[in-house]
Amino acid sequence: MIPPAHRPTPRQRAHRKLVRRRVCVRARLTSIKNRIRHVAAEYNADRKELFTSEGLKYLRGLKLDPVDRWLVQRLPRELKLYRDELKAVDRQLAAFARTAPAAEAGHRALLDSIPAVGPVTREAFLAEVAGPERFGSQKKLTSYVGLAPGQPRVGRQAATTWASRTAARRFCAGCCTRPPGNWCGARRPGD
User: Fold this and answer.
1) What is the pLDDT of residues 116-142, one digit of tens each?
2) Rounded to whole angstroms, how far apart are CA atoms 79 and 29?
3) How many whole angstroms separate alpha carbon 12 and alpha carbon 7?
4) What are the CA-CA distances from residue 169 to residues 74, 106, 124, 164, 178 (Å)?
5) Radius of gyration (Cα) for the chain, nearest Å?
């Protein structure tokens, strides 16, 4: 029997757009910071506090090649632009959460009660899962998110699978800082 497909509501689709926009902006911020660090590292001038106002002032005061000088002038502007964009997306997500129906507000309150689950994790989870009531059990939910391995039997051999990697990566992209090879701490047998 084929299970019914889930079709997100317009509100759920809007929520996903906001969360995915936040992920995109966050990735862009990281990319810009990495480029600035790369320029600083080429001159052995990388510092821990590089992205503070003093650190950027220090970077502007270095003797740099013309192209690197041009980058050092432009990249901090881009960094500020994306920091402002991240704040705007966060404000929009907060406004979106304030207009939530009772069931969604209840899910938010439940997720907020879990230690180490902050607003980013909460919103990523709710956007991708769209409420745990659509799953028949905890096992199905964790399997969908990709946090629980499955063990299908093929003939006489059991093979471990990692279900729904796409959903798990979307979930983890918004909330985890671990590298993709070990997302959410899940380990493959033998790793």
Assistant:
1) 888 998 899 899 888 777 877 777 787
2) 6
3) 9
4) 32, 25, 11, 9, 11
5) 21
Residues 6+ apart with CB under 8 A from 75: 32, 35, 36, 39
Q: For residue range 13-68, list pLDDT tens digits in order.
A: 999 999 999 999 999 999 999 999 999 999 998 888 888 889 888 988 889 999 99
Partner residues linked to 52 by β-bridges: none
Task: Count how many residues are written for the chain.
Answer: 191
Q: What is the pLDDT of residues 87-100, one digit of tens each?
A: 999 999 999 999 99
Cβ neighbourhood burial of 39 (10 Å; 0-12, 13-18, 19+): buried
Residue 158, beta-bridge partner list: 153
Alpha helix ranges (H) inside the chain: 10-42, 53-60, 66-98, 102-112, 119-129, 138-145, 165-173
Residues 6+ apart with CB under 8 A from 142: 148
Taking the chain, what is the end-to-end CA distance rounded to the nearest angstrom?
A: 35
